[in-house]
Amino acid sequence: MDLLQNTEIRKLAVSDLCEFKMFHVKHFMNYKISDLSFFAYLTRPQYQTFGMFHVKHLIGYVIFQVSSFEADILYIGVHPNYRRQGVATRLLNCKCFTCNIPENGLGQFKIFLEVETENFSALSFYKTQGFEIVSVRKKYLKGKDAYLMCKTI
Ligand SMILES: CC(C)(COP(=O)(O)OP(=O)(O)OC[C@H]1O[C@@H](n2cnc3c(N)ncnc32)[C@H](O)[C@@H]1OP(=O)(O)O)[C@@H](O)C(=O)NCCC(=O)NCCS
């Protein structure tokens, strides 16, 4: 059975703050986000945060920080019970995000991210999405080495 039937992706709003924060704290404790940042990710224009909902429950989200010709993925996370079913793939490629890119920017719009060199699942995921390693940032994330990765769309 396709567990992703009855799903929708939409931009998260301030009304989602409580669910967004609880979801993150429950499943992604190793990546700390302050209360101020949770709020900023839903309200400040430089951030675009999208969530995927299954029967009205949040099952994954992605936070982009966007400027004119590039974006950074600040975090992407999927509920442990919903992994390996294409949730992160759909979030990363959601039309809500790509339709905001100016047409004349397509083909040169860069998406960057940093990922711990030992986060093998995320690394594998990003490689399947066409991201390439640009450089290694030593002792970057909580003292651990991280890859800077990039993809042009
Ligand atoms: C990384 C993460 C977001 C992937 O989410 P997901 O919804 O399971 O990813 P998808 O189902 O879209 O995966 C697409 C492809 O990526 C690769 N992939 C994803 N997870 C993988 C894993 N654990 N091991 C190896 N390859 C993996 C596979 O090739 C997969 O395709 P397949 O299932 O057909 O083989 C998820 O594992 C997660 O939330 N991890 C914890 C949070 C985290 O580390 N975030 C990244 C911060 S930088």
Protein described:
With 153 residues, the chain is an alpha+beta fold. It has a single domain, classed as Gcn5-related N-acetyltransferase (GNAT) (Aminopeptidase, 3-Layer(aba) Sandwich). Helices cover 25% and strands 38% of the residues. The chain has five helices and seven strands. The chain has helices at 17-27, 35-43, 87-92, 95-98, 120-128, and strands at 7-11, 47-54, 57-66, 70-78, 110-116, 132-141, 144-152. The chain has a seven-stranded mixed β-sheet with strand order 1-2-3-4-5-7-6, sandwiched between helices. Strand 2 and strand 3 (57-66) form a beta hairpin. The chain is globular and about 40 Å long. The N and C termini lie far apart (32 Å). The mean pLDDT is 92. The protein binds coenzyme A (COA). Coenzyme A binds at residues 28, 75-78, 83-89, 115, 119, 121-122, 124-125, 128.
Could you outline the blueprint of secondary structure elements for this entry?
Blueprint: E1 7-11, H1 17-27, H2 35-43, E2 47-54, E3 57-66, E4 70-78, H3 87-92, H4 95-98, E5 110-116, H5 120-128, E6 132-141, E7 144-152
Parallel strand pairs: 4-5
Antiparallel strand pairs: 1-2, 2-3, 3-4, 5-7, 6-7
This protein binds coenzyme A.
Task: Briefly say what this structure is.
The chain has 5 helices and 7 strands; from the N terminus they run βααβββααβαββ. It has 153 residues and is of the alpha+beta class.
> How many structural units, i.e. domains?
1
Q: Count of helices?
A: 5
Task: Describe the largest sheet.
Answer: 7 strands, mixed
How many β strands by DSSP? 7
Strand order of the largest sheet: 1-2-3-4-5-7-6
Structural classification: alpha+beta
Query: Based on CA inertia axes, which overall geometry fits?
Result: globular
Fourth-tier CATH superfamily name: Gcn5-related N-acetyltransferase (GNAT)
CATH class: Alpha Beta
- Overall mean pLDDT score? 92
Helix amount: 25-40%
Q: Which kinds of small molecule does this entry bind, naming each only once? A: coenzyme A
CATH architecture: 3-Layer(aba) Sandwich
Termini gap: 32 Å
**What is the percentage of strand-forming residues?**
35-45%
Could you please say which CATH topology applies here?
Aminopeptidase
How do the SSEs run, as a string of H and E? EHHEEEHHEHEE
Integer-rounded radius of gyration: 15 Å
